[in-house]
Design goal:
By secondary structure, this protein is of the alpha+beta class. Helices cover 63% and strands 10% of the residues. It has helices at residues 2-14, 19-35, 39-42, 44-51, 66-77, 80-93, 96-121, 135-141, 146-180, 184-199, 202-231, 236-245, 262-277, 284-288, 296-303, 305-325, 353-363, 440-448, 460-488, 493-506, 512-536, 538-555, and strands spanning 124-125, 131-132, 332-335, 341-345, 374-379, 382-383, 388-392, 395-396, 398-404, 407-408, 411-416, 419-421, 424-425, 428-436. Strands 3, 9, 10, 13 and 14 form a five-stranded antiparallel β-sheet that branches. A four-stranded antiparallel β-sheet has the order 6-5-11-12, with no helix packed on it. A three-stranded antiparallel β-sheet has the order 4-7-8, with no helix packed on it. Strand 9 (398-404) and strand 10 (407-408) form a beta hairpin. Helix 9 (146-180) packs across helix 10, helix 9 (146-180) runs antiparallel to helix 21 (512-536) and helix 11 (202-231) runs parallel beside helix 16 (305-325). The longest helix is centred in the first third of the chain and has 35 residues, at 146-180.
Length: 556
């Protein structure tokens, strides 16, 4: 597992996790924002009117209404990224990572409008009578680059697993296990059956489910988050200060948090921001292409609202809950994930500032420390080997114990270059436990305990994840469905659905760190061809927007 995680992390470091990718993403959004004169501000009220149905025409071609298309697209974005993704961004980059998530969303509002406009304009009707659209169609019909369209479609299929399938059920199953003790595979099996029943019905059934669930679950989650913020009201202003006060200086070590550089905050904030709202990724245009609309730009207006709702509202609230509660820098008892565990050669103590600074430098990649290679001797769950320091989740691990099926373990553990090799004893799992920082859904769960509901607050996360993440998986099955249809025709869609549901089940009991690493790679592979395409067609976009406004003004 560790080797696979290292490979995926290496690939991600050259693409989605690299500086050039971040600058390309933000640069594209900034370019269109200036080029189209801040449409996310000028067109916001008009977008609300369009989605409300004011300009609807029942005779327009399409499979869904504006609101259903928006709900379907939001179901694809409002998910793990809003709960686990925000927690991961803050865990890696500190509070200022949230600022860069918000900036990504603000610029992404324009990017989303542009990509949806182009995709809706060049959509087509398939042999089964349904509407199919997305970036691959403007790449094929307008850019005359079938190779780029094929690359995007293939990337979409992989991303349907990396973004919509695997991390969603993984987060749900982890949350259900930590809160209710429900085995991961049981959660995966039940939801896999429900997923199969929904995706078989196609876009109309998906849109119907999304239309009803998205408003309900968003209001419910926001109410729970507001209860935590109200309880910690005196920390709200300091939380804003932490988000906006360290944008260009990085976050210093505090509590169990070992600090984050400006680069880490910027990179992780933008990366998780993209994962949250998918602006520029080219996924939402596939859902919006099915909307009944004669004017492609009108659907682009609807899409403009997505990053605002998804990131600027929901992710901001989540981030403030994490920061104001203080949960992001506290250590908790937990079962260690193998890919998140590192053994250093040498003894370092967190209470000694100089030694803490050395470990912080190692975590941040400034000055690597020597990694331990050898054997750890364990007796009755306690590690007897001296001269080592165990890190987990980018923090000093405390009270570390080794267990086998909940019982203390006695024996030895091999360590190679700091990575613990856990043995498999028949049907028993050997694992490490202790106190460390948390990230992803477990961190959000702990933060929601620090409100008026107390320990009952922890149940907000698994329930929200159940709804958020499941609808995201449903929406992404449609995105992959349309990509398969583009490449090979509708006859292969059924086979894709079977593989998708199977992957959904298997990811319910797979290492979280591996899943997130895979998602980062697939997001980048899908985003790159789409950004290249919309930049090439920037003049056509402006012309379409200007013509649309002339017609709208003429009707007023």
């Amino acid at each position: 597992m560790q080797e696979l995680n290292n490979i995926l992390s290496l690939i991600d470091s050259h693409f989605g996790g690299s500086q050039w990718f971040v600058f390309l993403l933000l640069g594209t959004g900034l370019f269109f924002t200036v080029y189209l004169r801040f449409p996310q501000v000028r067109f916001f009220r008009h977008a609300l009117k369009v989605v409300s149905g004011k300009y609807d025409n029942k005779h327009d071609i399409g499979d869904t209404s504006h609101f259903q298309a928006l709900s379907t697209a939001l179901s694809g974005t409002v998910g793990t990224g809003n709960i686990a993704g925000v927690a991961l961004a803050i865990h890696l980059g500190g509070p200022s990572a949230l600022f860069w998530m918000l900036m990504t969303a603000f610029l992404g509002m324009t990017t989303k409008m542009v990509e949806v406009t182009l995709s809706h304009k060049y959509r087509e009707q398939t042999e089964d009578g349904t509407i199919s659209g997305g970036p691959m169609y403007y790449m094929k019909h307008r850019l005359h680059m079938p190779w780029l369209a094929a690359l995007f479609a293939v990337a979409t299929i992989f991303s349907s697993f990396g973004t919509g399938c695997l991390p969603q059920i993984n987060s749900i199953s982890n949350a259900m296990f930590s809160s209710f003790g429900i085995r991961h595979y049981i959660t995966g099996a039940i939801l896999a059956v429900l997923l199969a029943l929904i995706v078989i019905g196609g876009i109309k059934r998906i849109a119907l489910v999304s239309e009803r669930l998205i408003p309900f679950m968003s209001v419910l989650y926001i109410m729970g988050a507001v209860s935590v913020l109200a309880y910690n009201y005196d920390n709200i202003l300091p939380a804003f200060g932490a988000v906006f006060g360290n944008i260009f200086s990085g976050t210093a070590a505090s509590g169990g948090f070992l600090g984050a550089t400006v680069v880490w905050a910027f990179n992780r904030g933008v990366n998780r921001g993209l994962f949250s709202n998918e602006a520029g990724q080219g996924s939402a245009p596939i859902a919006h292409a099915a909307a009944k609309a004669e004017e492609p730009v009108s659907e682009g207006m609807v899409a403009l609202l997505e990053p605002f709702i998804d990131t600027i509202v929901i992710c901001l609230i989540t981030g403030l809950v994490l920061i104001s509660s203080g949960a992001w820098m506290e250590k908790y008892d937990n079962q260690f994930q193998q890919a998140d565990t590192v053994v250093l050669s040498g003894t370092y103590q967190e209470k000694i500032p100089e030694q803490k600074a050395l470990v912080s430098g190692h975590i941040l990649g400034k000055q690597p420390l020597p990694l331990f290679t050898g054997t750890l001797q364990v007796e009755d769950g306690k590690i007897l080997t001296t001269g080592i320091t165990i890190l987990h989740a980018r923090s000093f691990a405390e009270d570390v114990r080794v267990k086998s099926d909940k019982e203390p373990y006695t024996g030895s553990l091999a360590v190679q270059n700091g990575n613990v090799v856990l043995p498999v004893l028949k049907d028993k799992q050997v694992y490490l436990t202790g106190k460390s920082l948390l990230h992803s859904a477990p961190l959000s769960t702990e933060a929601f305990k620090k409100g008026f509901f107390g320990d009952w607050g922890q149940y907000i996360i698994p329930f929200s994840l159940l709804l958020f993440a499941f609808t995201t998986a449903v929406a992404w099955s449609y995105y992959g469905d349309r990509a398969v249809t583009y490449l090979w025709g509708s006859k292969y869609v059924r086979a894709y659905h079977i593989i998708y549901v199977a992957g959904f089940f298997l990811a319910s009991f797979t290492d979280t760190t591996i899943v997130w690493a895979f998602s980062g790679v697939t997001v980048a592979l899908m985003t790159l061809p789409n950004l290249i395409g919309i930049l090439i067609l920037h003049k056509e976009v402006k012309s379409s927007v200007d013509s649309y406004w002339k017609r709208v003004r003429g009707k007023l």
